[in-house]
């Protein structure tokens, strides 16, 4: 169904992705998303647009002061991880009203049934779905608007966002079909690398998440070296030695997770890691992983803390980013309004 209307090639190669400023950044966000954002920025074949999605964050309750802090800290995290505000557009979503405006149009394109199938809604709404916010239900339409208001062609994300990106494609296809146009690109998800799904350190069947009640389940980008080492030392494992081939990690979710994390941090593939560490016990592998994690993450957390001392500078960066983002988004929204039949657009 999607191939016939595949239109991405006629669009400027442009990357868009977003991270919610709800709580701190985790190693999962870093390896699954942010590190890939930096790669795509450096690759040079894309315009790169990265966003702190504060409007998405408030689909569940956020304390206003904490939200402000988390948004600035996330901006510091982007920069500390290697996003250069001169090379990439870096801004917070609420500053570019075209996201919410296009989201309304998409609310009228997307179908209730599509939204009801979203597993993230079911997970987040929990047992009491009637009490979830309407925003949480409509969340994927706003996400589609984030992407399509830039005519983005590629969206790097972790595995957990795959279903939302399929919905984004469905919205683009339905809009194009309903209005007899090829205005919106059918975006490609970019879900690549060894760490598209970093799992909890306490339970290899659960995603590492900022909302997990156990802090020991995750590595936070603000953790210091001792905390990182302690969490890795205590990470759940099994009693076997490491295998020398990836297929030996099947049915060993905790072992596979730690090897994936190592591979992603070291920029190696899993087979290359296992060629080096196959046969080792966890008592030997865990200190190697923890040294590597500290070496890669400590400079980022130090730089984040430094940047957070000057929040005026962070605000200035977000201000500039929002202006650049609007330069792209405003004409695309305007054209959408014309297509839809809004007088005066
Ligand atoms: P969020 O804020 O939950 O996560 C941000 C990014 O981090 C990835 N991620 C992970 N990757 C690997 N392993 C994990 N354990 C892990 N946890 C999180 C996520 O896949 C994501 O790429 N809906 C999005 C935010 C969003 C967005 C967008 C993304 C809003 N608009 C437009 C792309 C394009 C979200 O909640 O991500």
Overview of this structure, please?
- The chain has a three-stranded parallel β-sheet with strand order 1-2-3.
- Strand 4 (154-156), helix 8 (162-178) and strand 5 (188-190) form a beta-alpha-beta unit.
- The chain has two domains: 8-196 and 310-340, HUPs (Rossmann fold, 3-Layer(aba) Sandwich); 215-306, Orthogonal Bundle (Tyrosyl-Transfer RNA Synthetase).
- The protein has helices at 27-43, 54-57, 64-81, 98-107, 112-116, 119-125, 134-148, 162-178, 225-234, 253-266, 270-277, 282-307, 311-340, and strands at residues 14-19, 47-52, 89-92, 154-156, 188-190.
- By secondary structure, it is mainly α.
- The model is unreliable at 1-7 (pLDDT under 50).
- Bound molecules: tryptophanyl-5'AMP.
